[in-house]
Amino acid sequence: SGKSTLLYTIGGLLRPTSGEVILGETCVYSLSTTERARLRLIKVGFVFQTFNLVPYLTCIENVALP
């Protein structure tokens, strides 16, 4: 229990109620929303349980999205 919450918190998607999240030398929640998104793009990979695909795109187009 709490596995998804932990991963979302580490990935910068869910702000912790206390403490800090540090990836490398970066305090994740001192970054702006845009900077956290860039951090996820470069440093963190997620495979979500729900796919959240864009329905009007093809499979290839969905996979090509950043």
Task: Jot down its keywords.
38% helix, 3 helices, 2 strands, mainly alpha, 66 residues, two-stranded antiparallel ribbon
Could you provide a short overview of the structure?
The chain is mainly alpha-helical and 66 residues long.
Structure notes:
This protein has helices at residues 3-10, 33-43, 59-64; strands at residues 22-23, 26-27. It is mainly α. The chain has one domain. A two-stranded antiparallel sheet has the order 1-2. The longest helix has 11 residues, at 33-43. The radius of gyration is 14 Å and the shape is globular. The termini are far apart.
Number of strands: 2
- Proportion of residues in extended strands: 5-15%
What is the general shape? globular
**What string, H for helix and E for strand, traces the elements in order?**
HEEHH
Question: For the terminal residues, how far apart are their CA atoms?
Answer: 29 Å
Structural class: mainly alpha
> Strands of the largest sheet, in order across it?
1-2
How would a crystallographer describe the biggest sheet? 2 strands, antiparallel
- Unreliable residue runs: none
Give the overall average pLDDT: 90
Please tell me how large the radius of gyration is.
Answer: 14 Å
Oligomer: single chain
Report helical residue fraction: 25-40%
Number of domains: 1
> How many DSSP H or I helices?
3
